[in-house]
Every structure is written in C-alpha cells, then in structure tokens.
Amino acid sequence: MAHQRTVRSHNCGELRRSDIGKEITLCGWIGKRRDHGGLVFSDLRDRYGLTQIVFDPAIARPEVFEAAGRLRTEFVIWCKGSVRSRPEGMANPKLSTGEIEVACTELQILSEAKTTPFPIEDDVEVAETVRLKYRYLDLRRPSLQRNLLVRHKMLSIVRNELDKQGFVEVETPILYKSTPEGARDFIVPSRLNPGTFYALPQSPQTLKQLLMVSGMDRYYQVARCFRDEDLRADRQPEFSQIDIEASFLDEEAFFPILETMISKLWKDVLGQEVKTPFLRMPYSEAMARFGSDKPDIRFGLELQDLSGVFHASGFQVFKNALTANSRGIAGSVRAIVVAGQAERFSRKDLDDLQAHAGTFGAKGLLWIKVQADGTLQSPAAKFFSEEEKSALVAKLGLKAGDLVLCVADPRNKVVFDALGAIRLNVGGKLGMIPKQGEGKPAFLWVVDFPLLEYDEKENRYYACHHPFTSPKPEHFSDFVNGQNLESVLASAYDMVLNGVEVGGGSMRIYRPEVQAAMFRSLGLSPEQAREKFGFFLEALQYGTPPHGGIAFGIERLTAILCGVGPIRDVMAFPKTQKGTCLMSESPSAVEPDQLRDLGICLVSGSDKIPGNSPQNSKD
Fold this sequence. Notes:
The protein is of the alpha+beta class. The protein has helices at about 60-70, 130-135, 135-140, 140-165, 205-215, 250-270, 285-290, 315-320, 345-360, 385-395, 410-430, 475-480, 510-520, 525-540, 555-560, 590-600; strands spanning about 25-35, 40-45, 50-55, 75-85, 100-110, 170, 185-190, 195-200, 220-225, 240-245, 280, 305, 330-340, 365-370, 375, 405-410, 445, 450-455, 460-465, 490-495, 500-505, 545-555, 600-605, 615-619. α4 (about 140-165) crosses α15.
C-alpha cells in the first residue's frame, strides 16, 4: 500500500482570490459531486468551510481522474492542485471561497464511506432518533458545528474575563457525597468500600463554599453537574455550568463583575451592545406584574389584582379564593387584559387556554368579553353585582372589544403560575413576543426572593433556593429566633434574559448559628444535619468569610447565543428524554461478575431489569 499523504497546507474555508496561482493541498470530506462534460466537480468540506475542487483529464493523470470517478459522498480525501478563478458567471457569493476552485493534479482516497442514513446538510428533516443514533454524522452538519464553536468561544471569553478579575479555575471532585439539593442523585457504588456509595454532584455547592473557607477568595469552574430527574427539551441528566464564587463582596460589588462578563459575551459573539447596569426587580414585583420569577419584560399583558373589587363577592369561586386559611393566608383574584382583541379568541381558543391553566393547578380560567355596548359577556357575569361590574370596568379601564382572562385560587402560587403561563401563550398568539434574535436583549436581575416556602401538604418549610442561601442581613435576627419565617427574604438573585433564567445564585450562610437555624427550619434534627453535612458544619467553625456565588447554565446560554431551542442542539452527545444514549445504547446491563464485585444484587422478579438472572439476584 502506497504511503498516504495526510498533511494539508490550507483548510477548506481559507482560500481566496488572493491565493490564485498557488499550489496547495487540502483534506476533507466529499460533499456534493457532479460530472459535467468530462469534468468531475466536488465540494470538499471540513469544519472551516467548503472549497470546490475539480478534476480535469487535461490536467490530471489518468489514474488520478479514474480515482476521482470513484469518489462518493463522505469519502475522506487528500488532494493537491492549483488555485484558479471560477469561470465567468460561476462564482458563488454565498461561500467565502466562492470565487475560486482548485484544479487537482493529485488525489488520495484516505477513507471510503457507506451511504449515510441522512444527507449531511442543514435544513434537512431528519427524525430525532436517527440524528441521535448517528450523532457523529449529525455533528458533521455545519449548523451543529457552529453551535459547538460558539460554545467554545463563549467559554474562552468567560475564562479571559474572569481571569482579568482575579478568579482562579479550580476543579472539584465528580465522585462525592450524596447531599440533598432538590433532585435525585446519581449513585455510584464503591468497590473498595462495600455497601457505601458516592454520588455524582448535582452542583459543586458545598465544595465551592469550602474553597472560600480555604481562602481561595475568587473561584470559578466549568463544572459538570448530574441530576436524575424527569427530562424535557431544556433538561439533560448531565449538563455544565459556569460556577463562580467569591469572598468579601455583596450584590453591589458582585453584579458589575457578572454584567461585564455577559456584556462581553453578547458583544463578541453577537455584535450586540448590552446596556449596564441591568434592571433589578424584586421577586414580589415580578410575580405581581408578570406571574413569573423569570419575567419576559419585552411586552405588556401585565397581571392585575382584582381581589379588592371582589372582596365581598357572593360568587363562590371568588369567595373561596379570598377566604383566609388556617394559617391566616388568603389567595387572590387576578387577571390580564387583552385590549381590543376579544374577537380573535374563539370559544375553542378560550377552552384551550382554560385547559392550559389547569396544568398549573387552576380549577378554571374565567373569561370576560366587553361587548360593543359596554356590557360584559361571561359565563360568570350573572354572579356579579352591578357595583362589581362597574368597579371591574373602572379598575381595568375596559373598553369595547377587550378580553379579560381571570384566575382565582386560595393558593397564590397557582394564580401566578397559571396567569404567567397564559400571558406567554396569549403574547405568542398575538405576535407580541419578539422572535429569537430580534430586538434588544432584555436582561434583568430578579432579587429579594423568599428564603423559605411552606408546603401545606407536608406541613413543613422548604428552601426556595438551597439550604446554604443566606437570609438578608436585616432578617438574621428573626430567622435565627424562628420568627416571621414567611417574611424572611433571601440574599438570592437570578439573572433573567427575555423570560429565561440564565443564571442563579445567592450570598451564602457563613455563620454557624444561621446555618443551624436553616437546617432547623427545614425540619432537620441536629443529628440529621451532622450526618448529611457534618464536614461542612465543622468547616464553618474555623473562620468563614462572607461569600456568595452564581452558576450560569452553559447549554442554556449557548442555545440563546445560537438562536436554537432544545439544549441538546448545543451539546456534542446528548441523551434522549428517557436519559438514554441511542448511539452507544447506554445505559446497558453489566456482567454479573461486575455486580458481584460491588456487592450488588438485582431485585428478583423485576423483568424490566436487563440481564436479571438467578445468579445475580436474591430475595
């Protein structure tokens, strides 16, 4: 077998008119191939671009021209030739190399290819399962390669910006201790310590805080995170985040660092200027106006509180919503007004909106249309007094053609969640929400979250963020003393862009008595707290600096920068919504000997477990 030359002088996106006359070598994959009057043309592709090559029997030796006749799509080749101008009228302005072609005098086929299961082109409809099974072919498509290159550029910019600010990149372990952080852990058995388990980290939360205890002062990491939870388009069982932590600062000092980094990203990747400082909005305002803690502030349809209008209503739905529960907390009646668009919503549209509200726990969605004569048309209009109707019209400034969409519930979370979702649905239907890439990016900080959330069913509190989030300093006393817990605000913050949370963080608890109060509020006994977090509680007693941090979702940021939807389109090897890899057919069964080494027995009688058999299962 003759020696194969595999060294190229240029890549396939590099040659220009200024290179005409040069002898060059190229390597790449064959794209489209065309025979024209004895000439063989082909597009040669690599990740840098595409160059047209041509084999002319008047130039190429017979054996070279014969080899060119055997070329097929996705063959990998090496070729040598001279750069020349394309014939008059044949230039392709859509290509950076569109003014030239390479007349080849030598050719070596480095690797042949079977017919691919789908064309290696953008804008070709291919089933998702096929794309994921042949992901290595899917990744040859220019759009996916562009996404990965944007991801690379983004991380390069982030690293440079954080380096300028004195942050140090530190890696933390993947095999770690199982700690409750909101989702299920992926568990890894230890062979060397039978009966014990590691967990893959949901985030490096305690570790990055321990780095602050260590005096590292400013840390960051491109951290791999793992969560065993139900998946959807914007979730994957493993994902990456830009993890940042810093000591001796507060929000006023921290936010400008982060805003500068994000502004640099948008400037260098998209060429867009981002105005700083970002708008700040308290959580209570975000919920009251938009029904969401990640509000899209680019359009209106803001929520209106009608509780005062109907405070004495005889309408049972409203009456139930506004009656305080055993803890003295009442729900609310709220609505959005779709001005002048009532006729665009058919009864089916309204039924669909009602069903959508139901997915968020709402028992119904009340609609009211304002007729041409000013009267109110609604299934519930007969239950409203004339005074209530007048007050409603005055409160909302209603006019003929307006549509009111209303939700009432004893649980304010249900009201906010349902109306917030309805707002986005209606805004999309009416074309009020700019499409991806259109308009200026609307960044804001959502701040002053509640520290705790009470679960009526469980009769206990949960941390709204995580159990290491600090109360605001002015609430320390109440919190440590267990007073007014539902009024205690957290030093927590989310960065939101166009209705998408791109990053979230908080100032952390650094005083042992405050951390103990947090665990106590969550219902953990001192013994349980020590069992789960003993190492961390011990560390807090050796001099801990005030510190805080944030994590940005890398896939989510990249998807926004690339203008794509599902985050799997910005990941090299994503998994399906069932957490499987179709390409490698994982997860998969392992050999019985491997299970025996780990001291693991699969449950007998469980037919769903692959490889289950009597020799590796017991009662």
